[in-house]
Amino acid sequence: MVDAKYIGLIVLAVFSGSMLVYTWLSLYNRYDSSVVFYAALLIFSFSMMLVRAKTAQIN
Q1: Side-chain half-sphere CA neighbours of 47 within 13 A
Q2: Domain count of the chain?
Q3: DSSP-based three-state secondary structure for 59
Q4: Cα(44)–Cα(2) distance, rounded to whole angstroms?
Q5: Where do transmembrane segments lie in this chain (predicted)?
Q6: Would you call 32 helix, strand, or coil by DSSP?
Q7: Whole-number Å distance between alpha carbons of 37 and 25
Q8: What is the pLDDT of residues 5-23, one digit of tens each?
Q9: Which of the pair, 2 or 15, is modelled with greater confidence?
Q10: Sign of dihedral through CA atoms 53, 2, 7, 37?
């Protein structure tokens, strides 16, 4: 089970990563929504991997 604080951190990581990619692509007028989506998906999966490893150590 994932704690509420970890869910908040995952949401924050996905949002900040998505906004970073969006800003980076917007600087060059090359915005592509699929790139932002895949970046958010990558950040989400990496965050979940870290949280699962952290919660497995506690139990």
Answers
A1: 20
A2: 1
A3: coil
A4: 14
A5: 6-28, 35-53
A6: coil
A7: 13
A8: 889 999 999 999 999 999 9
A9: 15
A10: positive
